[in-house]
Specification:
CATH class: Mainly Beta
Number of domains: 1
Shape: elongated
CATH topology: Immunoglobulin-like
Number of strands: 7
Distance between the termini: 38 Å
Structural class: mainly beta
Mean pLDDT: 90
Largest sheet: 4 strands, antiparallel
CATH architecture: Sandwich
Number of helices: 0
Length: 103
Amino acid sequence: MSIVQPLPPKAPAAILPYDIDWSAWLAPGETITAATVTADTGINVNPSGKSTTTNAGVVTFWLGGGASGATYMVTITITTNSGAADSRTISVSVGTRMLLSVS
């Protein structure tokens, strides 16, 4: 499992979903039975009643908060129905998101 492009910065006030696709790593018929997400102090995992979900090999979680200019490490750990376990760590930068266009 890999992330092929950098994540855009997250604005401090934004609460955004993040999808991590493990399907290429899973064996045929294998499913994710548990997923946990932990993050550095200062950014919130699953704020405002959000929760981590799994569907077809994809783990979805939410991040909120963070200080502008900071980068946070977020670790996603999974367990599968075959007993395999793995984790991946991504970095999430917090900063100003630029407006792409005005109409």
